[in-house]
């Protein structure tokens, strides 16, 4: 018990940092505010995890449930999640702005997330048209993930300007780790096998595919409890901070006095779309790409991609830690361009194949080698002859193979460039918008990221499957390059708006002439009292003749802000 008390004391903030201890909030309010921010971190991690945890396993799982389903339908299933999120993100942002609180939208979305995850894990029961049930479950998980817009809006409202970069980098870290840790968890549960364990008279199946959904159910239940009033309390500090700086009388007057740069805002929204598109394309394509290029089996692809993505998570963690120190040395807009987008451009170029021969060509089960019905002569789907780049993809026979070295190098550059880019886009975006309620704007930002996640899987089905790696990564390289050039040309606008702080004005000692010439005049008795006070102030005395406190400043040296 004593050990727990000491541990709790160790993790409890004992005092407000010196640079923030300006009387804007008490120590208890500071602790409460940061507790709420850390709950937002966990929520962002969970929403990203809900999308990525099934990415490496969705194709083998779909193939098991419905062998007739193809990669294009897999692309639709993956795209269903961000499609639902894209539609509902602005609506969730508007809802939270309308209510003036984020609690109800978040509790509702987490309840939906739990139900949809349980639905996904129950697909082993094989209902009629199972692939459409999978599509529905992923769409509902996407709808619930629209709460990301609400989380981003709250983070902007609950952090001060000096805290914003660090807070956004941490929430971006949570989100990226969710994207990267998900496949790692999928790799971990492969130990359960595709058959796994069956309980409750066959109604509860726990295997390498369904375990991912049950992990989501457990974590979302915990997250729901975190948002109950006893634990989570909203603390909005950003508008009050700017209100005091600008000397305004209300928070609404404060944010209305700061007009955002809409060109910069939309530039960052488009840049966010391009950045997320390239990252999600790689995550979506990763498993099937390695199976095509390196002739890995289903289990090998899930296992090795899990290792590669988990290593990327460690690299991303180090990168996130370095963002705040980098931005203290260099301007945020330049770190975004040269540290984020430039590395992403190099990462895409590295994926243009430079092998000296095409990849291993694979036969297609029941297509190029049909099933005859003879159990002794028919080959099994996991036979080595079916591993490699499918013969039905005509480009496989003429396009050079991607090497494992360039795949790993490109992934390392992505693991560095993406965290920098996604963090600083959101940081600069929130600063450009100022202290105004940002629910709808963050909904648009989230919606652009969702659109890229919708198009990524569709891009895999339409471009990669039909035209191959040269077209896929050539197109994405050009997209990233032109986005970087546009940011470079717009760099002077990618800064937070200047706060025109009024200069303090020294109060002058009044004399009789000033009073007479003003719009009002002092009576003789008032004038006598004024002279007594003026004489007393010069002699460090009050009007009764008592000596003033030595710590008090003379009257004529006081200053006040207009």
UniProtKB/TrEMBL annotation:
<protein>
    <recommendedName>
        <fullName>Major facilitator superfamily (MFS) profile domain-containing protein</fullName>
    </recommendedName>
</protein>
<keyword id="KW-0472">Membrane</keyword>
<feature type="transmembrane region" description="Helical">
    <location>
        <begin position="199"/>
        <end position="232"/>
    </location>
</feature>
<feature type="transmembrane region" description="Helical">
    <location>
        <begin position="39"/>
        <end position="61"/>
    </location>
</feature>
<dbReference type="GO" id="GO:0005765">
    <property type="term" value="C:lysosomal membrane"/>
</dbReference>
<keyword id="KW-1133">Transmembrane helix</keyword>
<feature type="transmembrane region" description="Helical">
    <location>
        <begin position="301"/>
        <end position="323"/>
    </location>
</feature>
<feature type="transmembrane region" description="Helical">
    <location>
        <begin position="335"/>
        <end position="354"/>
    </location>
</feature>
<dbReference type="GO" id="GO:0022857">
    <property type="term" value="F:transmembrane transporter activity"/>
</dbReference>
<feature type="transmembrane region" description="Helical">
    <location>
        <begin position="441"/>
        <end position="465"/>
    </location>
</feature>
<feature type="transmembrane region" description="Helical">
    <location>
        <begin position="471"/>
        <end position="489"/>
    </location>
</feature>
<dbReference type="Pfam" id="PF07690">
    <property type="entry name" value="MFS_1"/>
</dbReference>
<dbReference type="InterPro" id="IPR051068">
    <property type="entry name" value="MFS_Domain-Containing_Protein"/>
</dbReference>
<feature type="transmembrane region" description="Helical">
    <location>
        <begin position="167"/>
        <end position="193"/>
    </location>
</feature>
<feature type="transmembrane region" description="Helical">
    <location>
        <begin position="132"/>
        <end position="155"/>
    </location>
</feature>
<feature type="transmembrane region" description="Helical">
    <location>
        <begin position="262"/>
        <end position="281"/>
    </location>
</feature>
<feature type="transmembrane region" description="Helical">
    <location>
        <begin position="73"/>
        <end position="95"/>
    </location>
</feature>
<keyword id="KW-0812">Transmembrane</keyword>
<keyword id="KW-0813">Transport</keyword>
<feature type="transmembrane region" description="Helical">
    <location>
        <begin position="102"/>
        <end position="120"/>
    </location>
</feature>
<dbReference type="InterPro" id="IPR020846">
    <property type="entry name" value="MFS_dom"/>
</dbReference>
<dbReference type="InterPro" id="IPR011701">
    <property type="entry name" value="MFS"/>
</dbReference>
<feature type="transmembrane region" description="Helical">
    <location>
        <begin position="408"/>
        <end position="429"/>
    </location>
</feature>
<dbReference type="GO" id="GO:0012505">
    <property type="term" value="C:endomembrane system"/>
</dbReference>
<feature type="domain" description="Major facilitator superfamily (MFS) profile">
    <location>
        <begin position="36"/>
        <end position="495"/>
    </location>
</feature>
<dbReference type="InterPro" id="IPR036259">
    <property type="entry name" value="MFS_trans_sf"/>
</dbReference>
């Amino acid at each position: 018990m004593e050990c727990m008390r000491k541990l709790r004391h160790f993790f409890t903030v004992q005092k407000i940092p010196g640079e923030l201890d300006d009387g804007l909030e008490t120590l208890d309010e500071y602790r409460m505010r940061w507790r709420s921010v850390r709950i937002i971190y966990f929520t962002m991690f969970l929403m990203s995890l809900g999308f990525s945890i099934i990415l490496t396993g969705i194709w083998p799982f779909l193939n098991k449930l419905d062998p007739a389903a193809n990669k294009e339908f897999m692309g639709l299933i993956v795209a269903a999640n961000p499609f639902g999120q894209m539609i509902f993100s602005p609506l969730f942002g508007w809802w939270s702005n309308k209510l003036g609180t984020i609690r109800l939208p978040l509790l509702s979305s987490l309840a939906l997330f739990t139900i949809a995850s349980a639905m996904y894990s129950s697909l082993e029961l094989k209902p009629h048209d199972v692939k459409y049930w999978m599509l529905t479950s992923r769409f509902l998980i996407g709808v619930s993930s629209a709460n990301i817009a609400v989380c981003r809006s709250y983070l902007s409202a609950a952090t001060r300007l000096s805290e914003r970069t660090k807070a956004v980098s941490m929430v971006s870290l949570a989100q990226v780790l969710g994207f990267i840790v998900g496949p790692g968890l999928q790799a971990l549960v492969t130990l359960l096998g595709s058959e796994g364990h069956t309980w409750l008279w066959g109604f509860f199946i726990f295997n390498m595919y369904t375990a991912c959904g049950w992990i989501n159910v457990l974590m979302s239940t915990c997250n729901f409890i975190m948002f109950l009033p006893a634990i989570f309390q909203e603390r909005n500090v950003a508008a009050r901070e700017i209100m005091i700086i600008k000397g305004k009388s209300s928070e609404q007057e404060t944010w209305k006095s700061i007009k955002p740069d809409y060109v910069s805002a939309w530039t960052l929204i488009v840049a966010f779309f391009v950045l997320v598109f390239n990252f999600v394309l790689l995550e979506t394509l990763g498993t099937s790409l390695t199976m095509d290029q390196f002739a890995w089996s289903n289990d090998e692809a899930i296992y090795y991609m899990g290792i590669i993505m988990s290593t990327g998570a460690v690299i991303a963690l180090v990168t996130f830690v370095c963002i705040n120190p980098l931005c203290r040395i260099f301007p945020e807009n330049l770190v975004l361009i040269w540290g984020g987008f430039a590395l992403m451009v190099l990462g895409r170029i590295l994926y243009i194949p430079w092998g000296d021969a095409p990849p291993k060509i694979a036969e297609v089960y029941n297509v190029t080698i049909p099933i005859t019905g003879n159990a002794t002569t028919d080959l099994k789907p996991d036979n080595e002859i079916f591993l490699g780049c499918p013969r039905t993809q005509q480009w496989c026979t003429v396009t050079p193979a991607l090497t494992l070295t360039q795949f790993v190098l490109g992934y390392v550059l992505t693991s560095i460039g993406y965290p920098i880019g996604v963090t600083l886009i959101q940081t600069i975006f929130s600063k450009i918008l100022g202290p105004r309620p940002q629910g709808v704007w963050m909904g648009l930002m989230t919606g652009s990221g969702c659109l890229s996640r919708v198009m990524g899987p569709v891009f895999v089905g339409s471009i990669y499957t039909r035209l191959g790696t040269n077209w896929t990564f050539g197109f994405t390289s050009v997209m990233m390059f032109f986005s970087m050039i546009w940011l470079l040309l717009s760099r002077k606008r990618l800064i937070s708006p200047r706060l025109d702080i009024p200069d303090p004005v020294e109060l002058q000692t009044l004399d009789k002439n000033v009073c007479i010439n003003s719009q009002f005049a002092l009576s003789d008795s008032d004038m006598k009292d004024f002279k007594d006070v003026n004489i007393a102030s010069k002699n460090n005395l009050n009007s009764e003749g008592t000596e003033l406190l030595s710590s008090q400043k003379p009257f004529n040296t006081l200053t006040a802000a207009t």
